[in-house]
Amino acid sequence: MTAQTIDVQACSGRILSSPIFRPGGKKLLAKGHVLRDEDIRVLQSEGMDQIWVTTLDDDEVSEDAAVCGIAGEMACGCYEIQMAPGGRANLVATENCCVLVDDELLRQMNCTSGVVIATTLNFSFAFAGQRIATIKSAPFAVAKSDYDGSLGMLLERGPILQARPTRGGSVAVLYCDPINGDRARTLFESVVRQKLDRFGARIHSSLAVLENEEHVARAIQQLLRTNPAAILIASTTAPAGPNDVVGRAMTNVQCQIERFLAPVEPGNLLLMGYKNDVPVLSAPGCFRSLKPNVIDLLLPPLTARYRVSTWEVACLGHGGLLG
Length: 323
Fold this sequence. Notes:
The protein is of the alpha+beta class. It contains 9 helices and 21 strands.
């Protein structure tokens, strides 16, 4: 990479080494801009004879080509690439989605020289039009060997990021209380609706039942027939685990218990199981307040119909202290 001063009329295809401003301070062209014939005419009309430009060597890839190539291979799902000045590319969600991030691959990519990537948090929810990642290059150029190595890593092990559409995933809610199921509905329904609104989700169906093993099991089966993205069990009690009423009811309808206890506060008494591909969650105390808790962390992937594993719940401990 070579920087030099040359005549404006001879700089087509060269890279601008520093920004150019009009009198008064308004930027005319940004640093890193690849000069075209129309740019040369504008510069000449501004009375400029010579400018600083950079010429790439044969073993280098321009910053825009590098970030565009990485952006095209690092993700999948509902996103588009928007180029920005200064060797930068932004990934923008094209519809409401859950962002899934391969943390290990992201770290390895960011250890290579030449290009770095920033993303939103794993399991985060993004509205359509929201930026979900940025790729930034070293100024002007990246060594072709570094670029090829990064691209090869993505092609072999990628993607780093998935923008998985939620498409207004509908959630079924089971309210239960040992004395009167409607009491649980009265206590929790407003909070549940507002939590779902945060993620563009809605209540597809709901039931309020007496909290005993038979009634809860029958209600879960009934809600499963509506094919929700997930079933939330909002209980007024704090079950002790899979052997309590809710856990036994889940087992009775042949839910596979995936996880009990989450390294998240509030929400450490999470009980999560799956009936076929439908997640069933009990999270004592998490429907009493709009403050963030384990439900807020898990709703985006679940409404995107992503199967959250026990290992992924365990990984929530880093940053799991929510309040």
